[in-house]
Design brief:
Blueprint (H helix, E strand, L loop, with lengths): L3 E5 L10 H13 L4 E6 L16 E5 L17 H14 L3 E5 L4 H11 L3 E5 L3 H7 L5 H16 L2 E4 L2 H11 L6 E3 L13 H10 L8 E5 L5 H21 L4 E5 L14 E5 L11 H6 L3 E4 L9 H8 L3 E5 L15 E3 L4 H11 L2 H18 L2 H14 L3
Parallel strand pairs: 1-2, 1-4, 2-3, 4-5, 5-6, 6-7, 8-9, 8-11, 9-10, 11-12, 12-13
Helix pairs in contact: 1-13, 2-3, 4-5, 8-11
Length: 394
């Protein structure tokens, strides 16, 4: 059955610069293999790259830019230009189902449902209210977020959560039954992300790194508060402890928004800026991960896609993460990943343990890739989405 799926995205996908845009990019790509897809994008946080997804089943359009864009994603809640673009898309495309990517597109999706009758699937990349609580927010805006998220989750015909942890949180917060949700974790392309010695050598040469220098990597959007805190932990807590044992070690910090982190710049910390994950861009993100001895995820707050761990695992890299950094994922501590409760001495000890044991690094990395091949792929997640549509009679 060929469905007509209208996907409302709050962000640009070309190129995908963070976990949410990466997930939406691959969702659009995979769903368009068997369905008609119309994706309405926004220029928010855009790098204004060229569209590189092409299919007779796929239509890509952008909402017009607006002064409300200065509010970020929140501006979409009340942006009449985005509503107008969404209505024009729905009227021309006549969707069978409307997919709201992230909370911020839910109001326009539910508004369209009243006019088209098409059911709405809300993709909850995280629990927004919980995320802001973890940030320490106490302003009246927090109450608005909780009300908005509760309303959107109750009103949507189906809500997709990334993990059991997120589903349980939303059930408790918004008094919803578990069967209102479906669990579809994000995935990875195991052909694009795979260990490549030639790519690793290319990156080490590009960064002027000695072949024997230990390389520790962190990936994240660097204007996102949890990732800013992670960089702070690396610069002030983790790196000094590692350098005391491995003076030649280098920390490679990858992601958009590094210009705001000048206070953490020092010798031994390399900020690359955004690195494209897509094939044909060399060196790409897989090459940078291949050059890494250890991938670190020192998060103490936040929620969301957590693609950094899945992508590192696909590259057969050893990962050290806090439990909150790997929350909702199925990697087994001590077998496929090393986990700690906080960014503390135990976290540093885990990193040092890996740096001193190449066999352990290799064993964890191989096991993590096997888990990716068994459970995490974008194709498998697209099939699960189609099952959700089928449940809704589409």
């Amino acid at each position: 059955m060929t469905r007509r799926i209208l996907i409302l995205s709050p962000c640009d996908l070309f190129p995908p610069v963070h976990g949410s845009s990466t997930a939406i990019y691959h969702t659009v790509q995979c769903l368009a293999e068997r369905n008609q897809v119309f994706a309405l994008l926004s220029k928010l946080y855009s790098q204004r790259g060229e569209v590189d997804l092409f299919s007779p089943n796929l239509t890509i359009r952008y909402g017009p830019e607006s002064p409300l864009d200065r509010l970020g994603y929140k501006g979409l809640l009340v942006n009449p230009l985005y509503y107008g673009a969404a209505w024009r898309a729905a009227r021309a495309f006549r969707p069978d189902v409307i997919q709201a990517e992230l909370l911020w597109t839910a109001p326009v999706a539910l508004w369209l449902r009243r006019r088209t009758g098409a059911p709405v699937v809300l993709m909850q990349e995280n629990v927004e209210y919980q995320k802001f609580v973890r940030f320490g927010m106490t302003s009246p805006f927090l109450k608005l977020i909780k009300w908005l998220e509760g309303w959107a989750c109750r009103a949507a015909d189906r809500v997709v959560a990334l993990s059991e942890v997120d589903r349980e949180a939303m059930c408790e917060l918004y008094h919803l039954p578990p069967d209102h949700f479906r669990l579809i974790p994000h995935g990875v392309d195991p052909h694009l992300f795979d260990y490549r010695p030639d790519g690793a050598a290319m990156v080490r040469e590009k960064l002027a790194l000695d072949e024997e220098a230990p390389v520790l990597t962190f990936v994240g959007k660097l204007d996102y508060l949890p990732n800013v805190r992670a960089v702070e932990f690396i610069a002030e807590r983790i790196a000094p402890a590692i350098w005391s044992r491995y003076p030649s070690a280098r920390f490679v910090i990858i992601g958009q928004g590094a210009e705001g982190l000048a206070r953490y710049r020092r010798d031994g910390l390399i900020f690359t800026g955004f690195v494209d994950a897509r094939a044909g861009r060399r060196p790409n993100l897989s090459d940078y991960l291949s050059a890494s001895d250890v991938v670190v995820v020192p998060l103490d707050s936040g929620s969301g896609t957590r693609l950094k761990i899945v992508e590192a695992a696909a590259n057969a890299r050893a990962v050290v993460s806090t439990r909150i950094g790997a929350e909702g994922q199925d990697f087994v501590d001590g077998e496929e990943i090393l986990l700690t409760d906080a960014v503390d001495e135990a976290f540093v000890d885990a990193v040092l343990r890996l740096l001193g044991d190449a066999e352990l690094r290799e064993r964890l990395g191989r096991a993590a890739r096997r888990k990716v091949l068994a459970q995490y792929s974008w194709q498998a997640q697209a099939y699960k989405m189609e099952q959700v549509y089928q449940e809704l009679g589409v």
